[in-house]
Backbone:
């Protein structure tokens, strides 16, 4: 029996098990009942109400169900609260995409903060000496030899990638701030980074996170 019951107003839970077993039971005085002997009238006599299945809810627009002592309550999420959650999600996805790596001229390149700093140093070396060659460990673990032009190109590509990620995060935050209601927020997808605009009744989707 997996139904949820409230005992004297407590939060709904499965019926307790007999000690050392997986058998649900209820107790009325010195009598214990299990299985089909657990009837509605005996549940009531033992102080139980239910069953009380947890209601479903829309995680985008509603709070999880809350027990008020007699019933589950599903409350609407205020637009302002949803905006805060969506902006936080956009920031999280920006970080994931920003640090997820890119490929430049066939070379897999990490884009985490440490690699960005290393690339900045390598780029400075290339600017100081355009004949330099630099050993570089690519994101897949292979070693490559880069000349000054290649180092500069990779460093620039990573910089542009990072800036594109921040630009898209800013656009998402602005769209979220401008949304008037939940319907407007439904048009913003922080996972893909896309923003949908309705133009003459037709949806037009923006570019999302940089790939």
Residues:
């Amino acid at each position: 029996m997996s139904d949820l019951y409230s005992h004297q107003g407590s939060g709904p839970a499965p019926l307790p098990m007999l000690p050392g077993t997986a058998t649900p039971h209820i107790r009325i005085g010195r009598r214990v009942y299990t299985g089909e002997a657990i009837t509605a009238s005996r549940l009531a006599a033992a102080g139980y109400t239910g069953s009380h299945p947890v209601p479903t809810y829309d995680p985008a627009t509603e709070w999880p169900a809350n027990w008020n002592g007699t019933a589950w309550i599903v409350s609407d999420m205020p637009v302002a609260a949803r905006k805060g959650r969506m902006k936080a999600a956009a920031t999280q996805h920006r970080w994931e995409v920003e640090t997820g790596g890119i490929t430049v001229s066939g070379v897999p390149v990490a884009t985490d903060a440490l690699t960005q700093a290393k690339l900045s140093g390598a780029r400075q070396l290339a600017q100081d000496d355009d004949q330099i060659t630099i050993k570089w460990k690519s994101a897949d673990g292979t070693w490559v030899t880069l000349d000054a032009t290649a180092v500069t190109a990779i460093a620039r590509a990573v910089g542009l990638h990072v800036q594109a990620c921040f630009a898209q995060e800013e656009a998402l935050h602005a769209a979220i701030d401008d949304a008037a209601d939940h319907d407007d927020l439904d048009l913003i997808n922080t996972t893909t980074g896309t923003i949908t605009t309705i133009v003459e009744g037709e949806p037009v989707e923006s570019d999302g996170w940089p790939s």
User: Anything to note?
Assistant: The mean pLDDT is 93.
